[in-house]
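Its record is quoted verbatim for completeness.
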Amino acid sequence: MENGAVYSPTTEEDPDPARGPRGGLAAYFFLGRLPLHRRVLKGSQLLLSLLAFVCEEVVSQCTLCGGLYFFEFVSCSAFLLSLLILIVYCTPVYERVDAAKVRSS
């Protein structure tokens, strides 16, 4: 059997030029879908929600902790949801999800 017949369906001769020089995990992230001002807003939302969660975790003692636990839940949820939305916008998952659902989120 000839090597060309065995390996030709499974190997890629010329990589996709759209991927560019990046390789590995960095090749899957593309920030071009979001305009610059939206990138800045999403990044600051992510950073501020993480900062709020960390600041809440610093509190060691409280007398009425109900509000503090609610703030912890909201700040952690905001961090995880904004991270998820940013990942959806910047990865190929964006093409697989309905665009109207992504925009509404």
